Amino acid sequence: MNQFEIKRLVDQAYEKAVLDKEEITALLAADISDLDYLLQKADQKREEICGDEVHLRAIIELSSYCKQNCYYCGLRKENEKLERYQLEKEEIIKTAQMAAELGYQTVVLQSGEDEYPAAEITEIINEIKNTTGMAITLSLGERDFAAYKLWREAGADRYLLKHEIADRALYEKYHPGMSFDNRIESLKYLKTIGYQIGSGVIIDLPGQTPEIMAEDLLLSQDLELDMIGSGPFIPHQQTPLKNGKTGTVEMTLKFTALSRLLLPLAHIPATTALGTIDDEGRQKALLAGANVVMPNVTDSKYRTKYQIYPEKICVNEEAGDCRQCIGGIIASLGRFVSQDKGHSLRQN
Ligand code: SAM
Ligand code: SF4
Ligand code: FES
């Protein structure tokens, strides 16, 4: 694709938030050295829609038990080498309260699919809401619809459930025993009952192509996502995809920039996975359309045990260290940490 054609497509995306599958595919397949204009227009759109504020979401990794066997993930059930842990209710609440003291306005409760009792999650939501007022995002995998409803009624604001890859055959190959339809139905249901929904993908999973990533973006538009995230695939030695190739920074940035242009109102995180494969990865994403960072606040004694992928950053840091580090990164870009909860821009 020549520079003239790239400019035409980027301008169209910037002005109308519309591109068809072939056009998205062509941009994703183009060399990043030809795509300065794409990144620049995504940054401009981010500035117009979100301004210079960056929302922080504090992640508590509350359990590394998982009943699923996703082909790429170190927490998969069949990884017998991983030492598992599950935080007690009180510990989760205390960690959330500490995050609120550090100034966080949102807490993300994340875990493997370990069937943490739904009633206890409800109590945790109630207690965090009552004592901190923080926005609460749940990222507990697929649960039954009654549990989603119970937690929404208890005050949970958002649900984060990545669709991971829009190709049904690859989705079902990499998620044995799971169903693509159920994933998508869960997201739709969550939206219907009032959650702000976050989804997204793993970039460069083996077999993933620019065409599939174009479908990922079109599906994300259809789902009217409130947040869309993309992190590069990082192979883990105790998984079936151990010989896969690490995803690239370039493809992640292209996807991030197109996410901003095609879903202008979405919140877009600069992901930890991108920060893991490139020391400057989160900075680069923040300059390509991203407006959110999700620092870890889990006690450091658990961090190495939540090993989704190897060499994950921040495993030796404490919550206060990450808060300070991320504040420095954001300030170095001339941006600032938001003082509000950063609810969906679609509802404002
Ligand atoms: N169990 C929940 C779920 O699957 O939705 C939440 C926790 S799961 C560890 C969070 C995310 O980690 C997944 O959505 C997936 O995109 C990401 N992930 C897992 N393994 C990965 C890997 N090897 N490389 C990059 N991202 C990975
Ligand atoms: Fe479990 Fe989530 Fe990892 Fe899949 S991605 S194995 S559901 S923790
Ligand atoms: Fe954890 Fe930088 S965000 S050390």
TrEMBL record:
Binding locations of [4Fe-4S] cluster: C66, C70, C73
GO biological process, one term: sulfur compound biosynthetic process
Pfam families from the UniProt entry: Radical_SAM
Domain Radical SAM core as annotated: residue spans: 52-271
Name used for this protein in its record: Biotin synthase
Residues annotated to bind S-adenosyl-L-methionine: E164, R183
NCBIfam families named among the record's database cross-references: rSAM_HydE
Free-text comment on the cofactor: Binds 1 [4Fe-4S] cluster. The cluster is coordinated with 3 cysteines and an exchangeable S-adenosyl-L-methionine.
Signal peptide: none
Transmembrane segments: none
Residues reported to bind (3R)-3-methyl-D-ornithine: S139
Gene3D superfamilies xrefs: Aldolase class I (3.20.20.70)
Any GO molecular function: metal ion binding
CC cofactor: [4Fe-4S] cluster; [2Fe-2S] cluster
Keywords: 4Fe-4S, Iron, Iron-sulfur, Metal-binding, S-adenosyl-L-methionine
